[in-house]
Fold:
Amino acid sequence: MENIRYDLITALPEIVIVCMAMFILLADLFLKPSNRITIYVLAQVTLLTAAYLTVSTHAQGVGYAFSGTFVDDAMADVLKLMIYLGTSLIFVYSRQYLQLRNMFRGEFYALVLFSVVGMMIMVSGQHMLTLYIGLELLSLSLYALVALDRDNAKATEAAMKYFVLGALASGLLLYGMSMIYGMTGSLNIADINHALNTDGNIQSVLVLGLVFIVAGLAFKLGAVPFQMWLPDVYEGSPTAVTILISSVPKLAAFALVIRLLVQGLGVHSLVVEWQQMLVIMAVLSIFIGNVTAIAQTNLKRMLAYSTISHVGFVLLGLMSASINGFNSAMFYIASYVFMTLAGFGMILLLSRKGFEADKLDDLKGLNQRSPWHAFLMLIVMFSMAGVPPTLGFYAKFSVLQAALQAGFLWVVVFAVLMAVVGAFYYLRIIKLMYFDEPLDHHPIQAPMDMRIVLGFNALGLLAIGIMPQSLMELCLYAIGKSLN
Amino acid sequence: MVDYFFLHVLSFAIWVPVLAGLVVLATGNDNKPDTTRWLALLGSIVSFLVTIPLYTHFNFAEGGFQFQEFSRWIPAFNIHYQLGADGIAVPLILLTSFTTVIVIISAWEVIEKRVAQYMASFLIMSGLMIGVFSALDAILYYVFWEAMLIPMFLIIGIWGGPNRVYATVKFFLYTLLGSLLMLVAFIYLYFQTGSFDIADYYKLQIPLNVQVLIFLAFFAAFAVKIPMWPVHTWLPDAHVEAPTGGSVVLAAIALKLGGYSFLRFAMPIAPDAAHSLSGFMIALSLIAIVYIALVALVQKDMKKLIAYSSISHMGFVTLGFFIFNNLGLEGAIVQMVSHGFISAAMFLSVGVLYDRVHSRQIESYGGVANTMPVFAAFAVLFAMANSGLPGTSGFVGEFMVILGAIQVNFWFAFLASLTLIFGAAYTLWMVKRVFYGEVANEKVAALKDLNKREFLILALLALLVLALGVYPQPLTDMTNATVTQLLSQLAQSKLPAGLPSGL
Structure:
């Protein structure tokens, strides 16, 4: 009895969100379209409640629930809080966009909340099947969200592409898991690690399983050579969904990597194997992401390639295979998420009915139309380029130092050179905003709450860039408590 | 309160202009540009005044860092907010805050679009550059060093000439590439010492092959900034396209950041590499002095000519550094300060003509002295100073470096002194074509002489150029102790004991 109670309390935030998502779906049927704002408020309150529950059930140690398949540790709690915050920002940024496109319906909010639960399960999963269920819940919600704008051919195509490739990747992941299961006799992360540690012999089947798992993870992260889906999905989805796909799920994917590769397969002889794979993927992602981004004329597509290069930098931290490295990777991914949110938030802010603001040229002369918003975008772009004093600089700095500590001098030098290439296309955005004449003279229409939140989001990149200590310590705390 | 100020002079020197810039940016209104201009001027004057105590309270006998400040910043990486200035940094800080005042005045009615953003960029950049000169923590230094690129990028890009986008992107990427390699070197040193404190780096023993790599990483950052031949190609583009104020700050201060950083980082952290690569560095410096002077000779664009002349003069600075003697080093520092005044004055003079005729081509002018006699007098003075005439500040630095070079190798001094001929040739030939002869065209005939504002800034600079030329002692007194200490530091090998030097 005591056990069940503990289990339920540990998973309370997930349970609350699931219930609320279903309630929203139901309530939507009875609400008049003019009252749909209630749903928006409900969704925000749900996230707030979940955040409160996560904070109040936060324990110092590591707790296991549901027979060791679900873990409650510092990393899980910190990542969950970041997911709530990110999702809440997405709700604020996307509201007007959805309203103007007749997508402001219960389904959007219910699906996003379901995807949030999926992410939370990925973050807390301590068993391969739990992790897999979380991943699928997230993925299926996202497939549906991409296709939310039913009559849009491009979005439907993107959804198909995403679904087919996503299913393939899930298959790879499952196949890898089955091999690991075959060799270790368990699906539980801790048991797998224990079995690998006691049986020093690493068999080639195990390495093969590892390859499949890494491939599946790389797909979800969007690392080269599994990045093909990313630009098309980013471009095809409604921007309100792109902002979701590009941001918070990366936090969950990071957790998945930590759970599977570090906590599960983190024994020395296997670490050497996946380290090599990550090095190659990191180098390729940084290279292809940055170089291809230069040729883009669509802002969403450009940000997709920029995501690929950022993933490369995250892998740079992960491949260091040290506490310092995981810590820096987490810092990077958290920085990335909030930079991306601000970047897509700006696209959403500039869009209006019948105008997506997703071409590079749509940003032309923004400084003349609104110096304030141009300034915010300037911060976001310099942060993505990694120029101090913005958050992006410390993100790059911390992964570079981790990789250098692990002895990858030439990889670091390469990454640094590619960062210069990357700076070029971010600078181009600034060039368009500041040096060119505007093509579009419509006044910017956006609700006040969105302007204020976006202002805080972008200025936060500068403020944390000047005082990065708090975020660094948060990541240090999360990783330090969860990995020993 | 007064005590607090004197304990944090450097912080005030950095943050007063930054804050002033933000205030200007926030209150700026393009419909009432005059308020913005006065506010910016007030901000720059206050920023200049807070740097004065750096001179009046300077201890001339002390060679180390003064006005030190320390507080914790990012304990996770042992990064501190650590400031201090020595006899090399203080003159450059004063130069920076002074130049900012000049730049604000020079932009008065010239800049008409987005006045607030223009003024704010210069104020913020001034604070950031003072930060570069006074940071004693590598990451703090790096943050200032990189952050100053942002306002400069915008200044060239928004208010520049027709080809401004190409020029400003090239400027940014060139500098960024060098800086990131320097960052890798900093991180390497961090793993060796466990901190980003420059003083710890000075004490670190490093094998020669690593020292060479570190030196080259620093070289990538600083040589681009100075700029040294052959990585100078961004400078003529940036200068030509930049608005007058941008050119002034670039030439007078931004280039000095590179020179200063050689003395602060590359040479004392890797002294053995500096010694073993000194032949290479001297060769590059001499190429800059001689070859770039010849390039300057054939320029048709006045700004381009002065840009090449800057590269050539900065060659003297690096030459002075790498001959490792007192005269050379001190001469190089004098040359940096003097070049700050002269290049600023030269670019402002071109600005005076450009504002009236809207051309930088030498061939658009001729006989300007007939219509603008006062201006011509100033321009000739600055041209003389630029070609190193005794009695002007241009002479002192170059003469000291040549004297220092002759102690090392006669041919170094011989080649370097060629610049006295070439420098005179390209500068005076330009002056002749622009100012003398018959009035070339109607535009020149219609020119009006200097207004009060232009007279004020040129007169101030002329005064300083002459003062430093006749009586450089206040400056050399300031640098003396620091230079002696730096040279003794450079003379000590930092190779780990017990290892053969080739390892």
